[in-house]
Amino acid sequence: MPPPRKQHYGIKHASGSLIHYRPPVSAITQRRHSAVVPSVLTFAVIVASGGLLLMIEKGMLNSVETPPPRANGKRFARNNNPAADVESQILQEIRNRTIRSMCGQRNTPNSVWSLSPLQRKTLLQHILVNDEHRFLYCYVPKVACSNWKRVLKVLSGALVNVNVKMKMDHRADLLFLSDFSPEEIRHRLRHYFKFMFVREPMARLLSAYRNKFGEIEAYQRKYGAEIVRRYRKGYAKAKKIAGNDVTFTEFVRYLIDEDPERMNEHWMPITNLCQPCAIQYNFIGSYERLESDAAYVLERVGAPQRVRFPERQTWYRPVTKETLHYYLCTVPQKFLKELLPKYILDFSLFGYSLPNTTTEYCRH
């Protein structure tokens, strides 16, 4: 029998499992700082009134500030900023409540085994396993998954530390849930700590577009050339196409015509990859709060102190709000209106506001 885990806190999932969020600061500290967290009260009212999804769809959550990353990727001091930490707990709880509410709808798959064979295959191939620390991680491309894979390789002994310079092999020295028998899968789903990380859906798409069509020749040849043939006038029968100049609008049109369940993993919706209704995740972290959320997960799974989440590389090009605004405003609104429904669950389940791409907004 493994030694007992440290106490942690959470709320009950409809299925009975415990949904975790960061351990709270003391009750006295919470009361002392409650007056300086007005957005927490706002969220409480939203949840009580059942209006969260409506507010998400109307973009009303844009004005709510989320707590910034803390501790520069190191183990954070939970009491360093009690007010922000309380708000993080509330945000996590609201996300969990939203998922429970939407996943309680009729005909929604509520277990791995109620998924279609294709859905189940995709899911199990995206869940990484660490038996020593008893956790499951559903990786989402373009949401820091390469760095998480480095962490898993360090924990398994395949890498000395997360900063080793090497080309990432996304299969070697990693254990996937799909490698196990159904009985072994059930055991791990029942007893292991399960987590995933999410990202604003359009920022994730833009990150994939810039990386794959701007830097990766294999993607340019396989996907870029086909996209140009399909959506660029006069290129339908062209034989030699480099595929390295795909426009963002062409990429959006391609996504509109694709089946979400058969998309490449780099732009497949997060809900299709990780199936948050079929698996009751104990923690759902955010790319926007990556450093502090990653630090929490490492502490929660009992990772050695020497294991730190990697810092971003110097060549990393962030998708800023201004960059995303620029690219989205280059796409005709009729295409965006067709694209957004494919990712609507990623917006609503994980609490992201739909982008504002009105003509007036795009003039600025």
UniProtKB/TrEMBL annotation:
Membrane-spanning intervals of the chain: 35-56
Keyword annotations: Carbohydrate metabolism, Glycoprotein, Golgi apparatus, Membrane, Signal-anchor, Transferase, Transmembrane, Transmembrane helix
Documented EC number(s): 2.8.2.-
Principal location listed in the UniProt entry: Golgi
Source species, domain of life: Eukaryota
Record membrane topology: Single-pass type II membrane protein
One GO cellular component term: Golgi membrane
UniProt protein name: Carbohydrate sulfotransferase
